[in-house]
Amino acid sequence: MMTVKKEPWKEWKHITKLDPDKQITEATLETIVESGTDAIMISGTQNITDKNVLQLTTLLKEYKIPKILEPATPDAVVYGDIDYIFVPLVLNSMDLEWIIGKHVKWIKTHEINWDRVIPEGYIVLNPESAVAKLTKSVTNLTTEEVKAYAEYAEKYLHLPIIYIEYSGTYGNSKLVKDLSELITEASLFYGGGIDTKERATEMRSYADVIIVGNVVYTNEEKFLATVPNL
Questions:
Q1: Considering the domain 8-226, what is its CATH architecture?
Q2: Which of 19, 84, 108, 177 could cross-link with 206 by S-S, CB 3.0 to 4.6 Å?
């Protein structure tokens, strides 16, 4: 585990998201670590357990790169070999479980290392995604509504990260641009559909950090092209 810095994501540009429910080779992990990506995020929506999270963290153990766990459920939280726990609040969910319910359950039933916990304000915008369906997110939002959610997250909740999640599809770059002009204190994360250098460059010009996931499992060359220093 690396020495934990305060708000290291302020210096990051690119995070690679790995799904514990998907198989990955050690060779691919080595490619990711050596690519220049700033951190690895362990995150998934379906079939996430403490067992498959532990399997992935064990594979990553020896690599000197910041490791983030973004847990899907309280029971999938592990601390070994993890530097940060990024915990989403799905702000546009119709189900309070994803805003406060699971979080309170976690606090009641687990001993928490708060020094590693970072809250994220999630706004989920792809209605076809597993995360939107699971969290019952209201995705047909206008630009002004999304901006209001983001401002609420930053100014009222004082969340350090606002995460625009399109999960599996490429999102509205004009919306991300508008949010980048609105948000002044929180870091703006964008994830969804980044599978080319052009898409990575476009979203990186507006978001503080881009999150790249699916393409790492399908095309390593395309993944490498999304990393800013290549």
A1: Alpha-Beta Barrel (3.20)
A2: 177
Q: What angle do CA 118, 51, 224 make, to 5 degrees?
A: 65
Q: What are the domain boundaries of the chain?
A: 8-226
